[in-house]
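If you are new to this repository, start here. Below is one unmodified record pulled from the training split, so you can see the exact layout before writing a loader.
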Amino acid sequence: MPKRLRLTRRFPIAMSEDGYRRLRRFAQEAGLDEGEALSFLFENFDSVTDHTNLTHRLRLFNAELEARKR
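And here is the target side for that same chain:
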Protein backbone atom coordinates (compact mmCIF):
# COMPACT_ATOMS: atom_id res chain seq x y z
CA MET A 1 0.00 0.00 0.00
CA PRO A 2 1.51 3.37 -0.98
CA LYS A 3 2.50 5.76 1.76
CA ARG A 4 0.04 8.65 2.09
CA LEU A 5 1.49 12.11 1.54
CA ARG A 6 0.65 14.19 4.60
CA LEU A 7 1.99 17.73 4.58
CA THR A 8 2.29 18.18 8.33
CA ARG A 9 4.92 20.90 8.56
CA ARG A 10 4.64 24.47 7.41
CA PHE A 11 7.51 26.82 7.92
CA PRO A 12 8.51 30.21 6.57
CA ILE A 13 11.48 30.08 4.25
CA ALA A 14 13.60 32.63 2.48
CA MET A 15 14.50 31.74 -1.07
CA SER A 16 16.27 33.58 -3.85
CA GLU A 17 14.24 34.57 -6.90
CA ASP A 18 16.34 32.24 -9.07
CA GLY A 19 15.79 29.35 -6.65
CA TYR A 20 12.04 29.96 -6.47
CA ARG A 21 11.73 30.17 -10.26
CA ARG A 22 13.60 26.87 -10.58
CA LEU A 23 11.40 25.24 -7.92
CA ARG A 24 8.24 26.42 -9.69
CA ARG A 25 9.52 25.15 -13.04
CA PHE A 26 10.44 21.76 -11.54
CA ALA A 27 7.06 21.49 -9.80
CA GLN A 28 5.18 22.38 -12.98
CA GLU A 29 7.16 19.87 -15.08
CA ALA A 30 6.51 17.16 -12.47
CA GLY A 31 2.81 18.01 -12.08
CA LEU A 32 3.21 18.95 -8.42
CA ASP A 33 2.69 22.06 -6.34
CA GLU A 34 5.73 23.70 -4.75
CA GLY A 35 5.25 22.01 -1.35
CA GLU A 36 4.92 18.57 -2.92
CA ALA A 37 8.01 19.22 -5.05
CA LEU A 38 10.05 20.19 -1.98
CA SER A 39 8.82 17.10 -0.13
CA PHE A 40 9.84 14.91 -3.07
CA LEU A 41 13.30 16.49 -3.31
CA PHE A 42 14.06 16.17 0.39
CA GLU A 43 12.58 12.68 0.81
CA ASN A 44 14.74 11.51 -2.12
CA PHE A 45 17.70 13.82 -1.52
CA ASP A 46 20.45 11.19 -1.68
CA SER A 47 19.19 9.68 -4.91
CA VAL A 48 18.60 12.99 -6.75
CA THR A 49 21.96 14.57 -5.91
CA ASP A 50 25.51 13.70 -6.84
CA HIS A 51 27.55 14.00 -3.63
CA THR A 52 30.70 15.27 -5.36
CA ASN A 53 28.84 17.87 -7.40
CA LEU A 54 26.75 18.91 -4.38
CA THR A 55 29.87 19.48 -2.27
CA HIS A 56 31.47 21.58 -5.00
CA ARG A 57 28.31 23.65 -5.61
CA LEU A 58 27.81 24.21 -1.88
CA ARG A 59 31.38 25.46 -1.54
CA LEU A 60 30.81 27.92 -4.41
CA PHE A 61 27.48 29.07 -2.98
CA ASN A 62 28.97 29.70 0.47
CA ALA A 63 31.86 31.63 -1.07
CA GLU A 64 29.42 33.99 -2.82
CA LEU A 65 26.81 34.18 -0.07
CA GLU A 66 27.96 37.36 1.69
CA ALA A 67 28.15 39.27 -1.59
CA ARG A 68 24.66 38.06 -2.56
CA LYS A 69 23.19 39.31 0.74
CA ARG A 70 24.17 42.91 -0.02
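Two things worth knowing about this chain: The radius of gyration is 14 Å. The chain has four helices and no strands.
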